[in-house]
Specification:
By secondary structure, this protein is an all-alpha fold. 63% of the residues lie in helices and 0% in strands. It has one domain.
Length: 70
């Protein structure tokens, strides 16, 4: 968590420190999100949708990838 706080200060995203901490915890134990006490039901729902609906993104998001691959 010390490194997360340093990153947040260095990149001026301190207002998102809570989300960054949650992201670090999920990255450390991606298969055990129900064991992470810092996550609420909404966070777990977002993670579940991320896994079950991998390709459900706005179409415009794919545009830079297509253009860069050309």
């Amino acid at each position: 968590m010390h490194r997360v706080e340093g990153f947040a200060r260095m990149t001026n995203v301190g207002e998102h420190i809570g989300d960054l901490r949650k992201g670090v915890l999920v990255a450390q134990k991606p298969g055990h999100i129900h064991d992470i006490l810092e996550l609420n039901d909404e966070d777990r729902g977002h993670r579940r949708r991320e896994v079950t609906q991998k390709w459900k993104h706005p179409v415009i998001l794919y545009f830079p990838f297509i253009m860069c691959s050309m």
